[in-house]
Design goal:
Helices cover 42% and strands 21% of the residues. It has 308 residues and is of the alpha/beta class. A hairpin with a 2-residue loop joins strand 7 and strand 8. The longest helix is centred in the middle third of the chain and has 22 residues, at 170-191.
Length: 308
């Protein structure tokens, strides 16, 4: 089932919403808008329902702040507004839909499902991690290039993921992918709350964008967190041995070490890029170079632009 977040400090409103959506959606309730930040970074809900009965300007400002983040542009917000009371202008708040409090029982399910469907049609996101996918990634890079921003881009790949997936199955492999996505977004946003970006290219490949002076620090943080957590996904016997036996791409039984990370970093501080594919390809080459080293590591392209 889809996961919904409910935000309200009105007991009656909460009870009405919960009764209406029970059995149709999974949900979690918070009393204040500020309380949801940690949850949405960790869990990426499918929809946020916010009660704005008290006409709180902080709620509107917070919603706009969340929706301004390129990672959460695809997260739909559905507002519950007071009956017969105009509390906001549609030009002032980035919401996807709203309904009157008196119409919750009648219309909430329909409005919620329409908001979810609209988001799936308009915005391309990875269904497993809920991170922006390739279309959104390329759009984000292109916008930064057109604005002539200086930024760094990291291409992250999980080493030895296929042998792990083959031995333990897709269920456990999907959990590794989801945990990796959460690690990336939490660390990137912790190091750079504003103007950073994280996306899921597909499979075990991720991408994140940050300021040039922060991306190496964040990459190191991600590596340390991943290396600390990833052994827990292995059975005890394999964890103690430090290797698993699985088939390679040719079908041969081989031993494979515990998963690690390879991260390649490119930036446009010196080299000029005109297309998203160019800087992504540079970062990908650096990622391939990082794979030549034992253990988790990142490598950055330090080439400077050659002046004629």
């Amino acid at each position: 089932m889809k996961r919904l977040v409910i935000v309200s400090d009105e007991k009656h409103t909460i009870e009405t919403i919960e009764k209406t959506i029970k059995g149709r959606f999974d949900f979690i309730t918070f009393n204040g808008i500020q309380e949801i930040f940690g949850y949405i970074y960790d869990s990426f809900p499918d929809l946020v329902i916010v009660d704005i009965s008290n006409n709180d300007k902080v709620i509107i400002e917070t919603i706009n702040h969340i929706k301004a983040d390129p990672i959460f542009r695809s997260l739909p917000f559905l507002l519950v507004v007071p009956d017969n009371k105009n509390v906001f202008s549609v030009d002032d708040i980035f919401i996807d839909d709203y309904l009157m409090a008196r119409d919750i029982e009648r219309d909430l399910i329909t409005r919620a499902e329409l908001s979810l469907l609209r988001t799936q049609r308009v915005v391309e996101i990875n269904p497993l991690t809920r991170l922006p996918g390739n279309i959104a990634i390329d759009r984000e890079i292109q916008m930064r290039l057109e604005r002539k921003e200086v930024f760094a881009l990291a291409y992250l790949d999980i080493d030895q993921f296929k042998p792990f997936n083959d031995k333990y199955g897709f269920g456990r492999g999907d959990e590794v992918i989801k945990v990796t996505g959460r690690l990336i977004i939490n660390i990137v946003k912790n190091r750079q709350p504003e103007e950073s970006f994280a996306g899921h290219i597909g499979g075990d490949d991720f991408l994140f964008i940050m300021d040039t002076h922060l991306i190496e620090i964040a990459s190191n943080d991600i590596i340390e967190a991943f290396d600390r957590i990833i052994p827990t996904f292995y059975d005890q016997q394999d964890r103690e041995k430090g290797v698993i036996e699985s088939k390679d791409r040719k079908g041969h039984i081989l031993s494979f070490p515990i998963m690690t990370l390879s991260i390649g970093i490119a930036h446009n501080k010196f080299l000029k890029f005109s297309h998203p594919g160019e800087i992504k390809e540079t970062a990908s080459r650096m990622k391939s170079y990082a794979k030549k080293f034992k253990g988790s590591c990142f490598k950055i392209d330090e080439r400077q632009q050659i002046k004629p």
